[in-house]
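DM from R.C. (forwarded with permission)

"hey, sorry to bug you on a friday — could you get me a structure for this? deadline for the figure draft is monday and I only need the backbone to look sensible"
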Amino acid sequence: MIKIFSFILANVLLTTLLHAQTESSKPDFYISGGLSISNSHDTTFSYSSYPSLEFGFMKDNFSLGLVAGRSNLSGFRTDEISNYWYELKAAVYLPLGKYNGYALLGIGNYISTKQVFVEYGLGFTRSWNHWGVFAQASNWDGTWYVTPGVSYTF
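My reply, with the result:
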């Protein structure tokens, strides 16, 4: 499954990059931060919330970003590198009036482990000038999350 997903993601990336080279407009770069909150068996907010920071580019109705984050908000005093993760995430946007809907797909890894995960989901975003807000629902490593966040486009 992971090999098939990686192959599809690589093809989408290659196609997008080749398409971007044929057009004259430049991509918009962005940074965003989010807090993914699960409905997992953990009952405390600190154990069921995953903070993240994403940097990437947007071109037409497509974005590609590199995301990094921490497994949850607890345990900073006895922190280990395996609590942190990174992900390559792609999204396709659909204009819906003042909002944009999007579908996302990503693949990632916990640092210093062999635990690879897949994320997929749907979301909505709204932008004003360079600022934006978003909310998404995604399945990440087998658990469903709701992620509110903010973004800034350069």
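R.C.: lifesaver. The mean pLDDT is 85.
me: no worries. The helical segments are 2-22.
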